[in-house]
Amino acid sequence: MSASAMSASHKSVVGHTPKRPSVALALGGGGARGLAHVLMLEVLDEMGLRPAVIAGTSIGAIFGAAYASGLSARLIRAHTEEVLGQRLGFAQALLAARSEPVLKLLNFLPVRSSLLSPLLLLDQVLPSKVAQDFGGLAIPFKAVATDFYAQEQVVLESGDLRTAVAASVALPALFSGVVRGERLLMDGGLVNPLPFDVLEGAADITVAIDVTGASSGPGKRLQPSPLAALVTSSQVLQRSIVREKLRASRPDIYIDVDVDRFQVLEFHRFREVLAAAQPAKEQLQRQLERVLTSETAVPVADDKAGPSPRHKGGLGGLRRLTRRRPV
Fold it and tell me: Alpha-carbon torsion 307, 308, 312, 314, what sign?
């Protein structure tokens, strides 16, 4: 090889910029606790990261669909604060007017329908710029739902986006199920509250945001209302599923957001939820910076095989990520 050719080859190697590892993002279900997802999306925007793919369950599907549609975290946060700040009073009054009589009737009469339609709810809470169809998304997206009669997980990633998200959030008894094709679909949290496993192999790094919460001790009322008992029981189930999943495998970065003190339906406390999630936001940024700026990603020393007590993130150690070094 001539000297000039060697020089050109050397320059091309020296001038090579290592490619950033790709990131897959899993957003879990947790009702009002899932408002914390907004802050996690802010981290991605602030770091200039664009996920290769997003998976979401329940409220994670709502925020995941909005972000996958190309909306910025700033816009999503502003829209969320507007909806919850200005329209919540009416929504609470409507829900209270409908729920109390229905709950009383549950003790005596068969009730054919649930309290709310998830599609009507999405019409109120989703930003107008969210895509109508999976084909219109800027980022590939997977919504996790449950086939009620087959009793199995369904991963929705094509067709009408809003019915997919509606199915993912359709908690039984609170929302009516969603029919897609010949399937009756309900809340994805019944089978997969934190869907990092559906992203396996989709990117170099899998990030999972857990907002299912842990035990926060006795509440203000020793005996919860029927609705609170029903919804919280579902949350207990979801937390148990996440624990078992983490025993089998872990995402590369797992963030367990400390939102335990918030009840699943306490959307009126959105400002408090966002404030409580701030430490988790900072933690996610540190973890991502460590992975993206280091030559290799290795498990952190305090990473535990089991998910309890509360595991505050870290690299799951599912793979060793080697980055090319400029020479």
Answer: negative
Identify the residue whose tokens are 């926060």. Answer: 216
CB–CB of 288/43 below 8 Å? yes
To the query of whether residue 58 is one of the catalytic residues in this protein, the response is yes
CB 34 within 8 A of CB 7: no
Distance CA 31, CA 165 (A): 14
Per residue of the chain (327 residues), what is the pLDDT tens digit? 544 444 444 444 445 556 788 999 999 999 999 999 999 999 999 999 999 999 999 999 999 999 999 999 999 999 999 888 875 554 554 454 343 434 443 343 344 445 678 888 888 789 989 999 999 999 999 999 999 999 999 999 999 999 999 999 998 878 889 999 999 999 999 999 999 999 999 999 999 999 987 655 555 556 666 666 766 777 788 888 999 999 999 999 999 999 988 888 888 899 999 999 999 999 999 999 998 887 444 444 334 334 443 444 444 443 434 333 322
Single out the catalytic residue among 69, 147, 187, 258: 187
Nearest to 288 by CA among 56, 54, 27, 45: 45
| Catalytic site residue from 58, 69, 176, 234 | 58
Task: Clarify whether 99 is annotated catalytic.
Answer: no
Torsion angle, alpha carbons of 240, 62, 146, 164, to 10 = -170
